[in-house]
Amino acid sequence: IATGLAIAFLLSPYIGEQMKQRLPASRIIIEYMNQFLLVALIFDSLMLMAGAIWAQDAWGRFWAWDPLETWALICWLSIGLLLHIRVAWKLPDLGYSWFVISIFVLAFATFFGVPFISIAPHQGVV
After folding, report:
1. Residues with Cβ within 8 Å of residue 96, at least 6 apart in sequence
2. Which residues contact 122 (CB under 8 A, 6 or more apart)?
3. Is the CB of residue 72 less than 8 Å from the CB of residue 124?
4. What is the pLDDT of residue 122?
5. Closest Cα partner for 48 from 37, 63, 61?
6. Residues 105, 3: contact at Cβ < 8 Å?
7. Is residue 82 within 8 Å of residue 95, measured between CB atoms?
8. Of 5, 71, 81, 100, which has the fewest Cβ atoms less than 10 A away?
């Protein structure tokens, strides 16, 4: 949802007036994007914790630094870093939107791309 809002924010200058009237103000779009990114961070945190608990039971270890686990951690760190940069450095809305889209691409590549190129036994969605 945050990615869809980022795309809507980026495309808002290029859409017609009739469609523009249906969209909320840019400030509201950015605020919703921020809130959904916070929800994504919470669910990504829960995913990492649940995966560690499951791995402890399944394999006798909670973390092995295999590619899928490592890239899932990188996704989590990137969301946290983006939220931190947004608050600490007052990242402009345009840059924030592009970073949200890049995190979506990173997460999509992590969960649907890494398992295809990984030789580790942890194959994820494959």
Report:
1. 6, 30, 33, 82, 86
2. 64, 66, 67, 68, 69
3. no
4. 62
5. 63
6. no
7. no
8. 81
User: Rounded to whole angstroms, how far apart are CA atoms 16 and 46?
Assistant: 40
Kindly state the tokens that stand for 8. Answer: 């809507």
Distance CA 41, CA 73 (A): 11
Residue type for position 37: L
In the block, tokens 């590619």 appear at 67
Exposed, middle or buried: residue 113 (CB in 10 Å: 0-12, 13-18, 19+)?
A: middle
Q: What is the pLDDT of residues 7-59, one digit of tens each?
A: 999 998 888 888 878 888 889 999 999 999 999 999 999 999 998 998 888 88
Whole-number Å distance between alpha carbons of 124 and 126 = 6
CA dihedral for 81, 101, 106, 46, sign (positive or negative):
positive
Confidence of residue 126 (pLDDT cuts 50, 70, 90): very low
